[in-house]
Structure formats: C-alpha cells, structure tokens
Amino acid sequence: MFLHHLIHKISSSNLSIFYLNESFDSAISYGGISFIQYDLVLYIAFLVLNYFGICFGFLGNLLTILTIIFNKELNAPSYWIIVNLSIADLLISSLINSFYTIGVLAGEDFFLNRKPLCTIIGFLCLIFCGSSLLNIALLALNRYIKICHDHLYSKIFSKKKTMFLCILPWLGGITLGTPNLSGWGGYDYDKKVLSCITDRTQSQEFGFFFIFCYVLTPCICIFVCYLKIFFFVSKYSGKIGCNSHKKQIQLAKSLFASFITYFFCWIPFGFIYIIDHSDMLHPAAMVITTAFAHINSSVNIIYYAYFSSTLRRGYYMFIVSLLPSSFNLVKSFKISHTTHAGS
Length: 343
What we know:
mainly alpha; single chain; Rhopdopsin 7-helix transmembrane proteins; two-stranded antiparallel ribbon; 13 helices
C-alpha cells in the first residue's frame, strides 16, 4: 500500500521536467512529419539510438552466435547460454528496433491500419525482452555454480540439462506476453515511443507484475550471485591460481559488466513505466528510457571482447577466417592453446 501510495503521489505531482506542459495536446498524432513539429531533437536522437542499436546489435550478436557455434573451444554450457541470450538480443536489435524506426518515420497511421501487426510486435517485444532478462539471470547462476560450487557444476549444467535450461527463458518470455492477449493489459500503439508495446494505461497491476517478476527479481538474483562470487574469489584467490580458474573469472567479469548495463538500462524504464500509468509524463521520459532499455541488447559484445580473452580470440579467429586470403593465415597463425575447463 505504501509503494502504491508513493507511486500515485509521484505520478500526480506537477514536476515540469517530466510532465507535459499546458500547451501539450494529448490528441496529437505523432510520427511521420508531425514529430518534427513537436520535438525534433528528441525523436532525431531516438532515431540515432535506434539506428545504432539495429546495426551494432545485429552485427555484434550475430558475430557472437557464429563465433561460439564454429569454435570448438567454446563448446561449453556457459557459452550455449550466451548464444541463447544473443539470439534474444539479436531479435530485439534487428526486429523490434526496426519497427520503432518505422513508427518515427511512417507515423501512427501505419500501425492503426494494421492492428494484428501491432499486437504481434508488442507480443514479440515482451517475449524477446523477457527472455533476454532471464538469460542474464541464468548466466549469473551458471557463473556462481561454476566458480563457487564447481563440484556440482557438471550435475546441474550437463549438456542435456543446459539445453532444457535454455528453453526456460523463452517460456518465461511467453508467460510474460500472454496475459496481455487474454485481457490483462493489452497491446497498442504508444504515441510516446511511436511503436506497438504493452499498453501501460490499461492495467497498472500488469506493470507491477512485469517490473517485479522480470526486472527487479532477476536483478536481485544476479546481484546476489555476483556478490557471492566476489566474496569467494576474495577469500580463495591466493589458493586457486590455475589458468582455467582465471578464465572463469574473466568470463564472470564480462557477464557482471553486462549486468551493470542491464541494471542502469532497465530500472529507469521500469520506474517510468509504472508511474506513467495515467499517461501524463512528458514523452521524453518514455522515449529515453525505452531507447536505453533496448540498447542493452546491443552492447554485450563489448564486454565479452574486453574481459574474456577466450571470446576475444574467438572473435579474431572467426573474422580472420572470413577474409579472402585467410586460409593460409589462419593455418600459420599459432596461438598457445590452453585447455578450456568446460565452463
């Protein structure tokens, strides 16, 4: 009750930095030429972020998927989960973000005349985003078991069990998207983000369900896993110095950096999503937080390449193998190969 009262109090206040000014016409049709008349800078910035997300997200996630698939050194459960995450992020970056761009350039009429398409886009958006968030949590659990309870790792993350575990985030995404199809909430064109997403004005209860189950809960689980990893490494770092253990720590660092991005990209979106139930916030609040929530799906390759020498070497070898005269180069290129510890 206190949380609900606090949110109501915030959403009913008149903070000018977020809320619509007196000249705002809620019936205005955004998108197409009309967005130029309303807020050129805001939506041009939105287009630029979307374009970055589409290009960098598509290429980065595709490179990650192909590198892991074609590199035997990366044939391990933790990397399968990374592939699972990259597939969800690839679909968000290339498919969902593309419709956001269409929404800005083509306008509201494009979606209003295609209601079934609007529902499909909103449904897929929740599936992909839900799967992405749950995959990040699954990776944190994977690293925690591998580093802190290695004797249990082969039992929990065997090949068959890992394949099953990779299905769960997608089932979780479907579970997130289905209630809106049955009347609890809904999918509609959002005049602020200029695309079809879940309608936050229909059901605040669904907003709480989404944010609590798919943003806050995974966030807490991930934080606890990495906190336990930190304490474990601090306690035993002097006793465990093998190369394979260092690889596990490197990968854990890259995944923790991914979590930090996830936290700062999704928590603001969740907060704005809930308090804008009455659709009174200034469009900039939803536009900016939505853009950064989706950008989260485009930047993981940066952390993989920077923190994990195994993935960095995998990226290099895969890219080199695509070059025209790369066969002899790859054949003659010698890398001191250390046995991968089945991470």
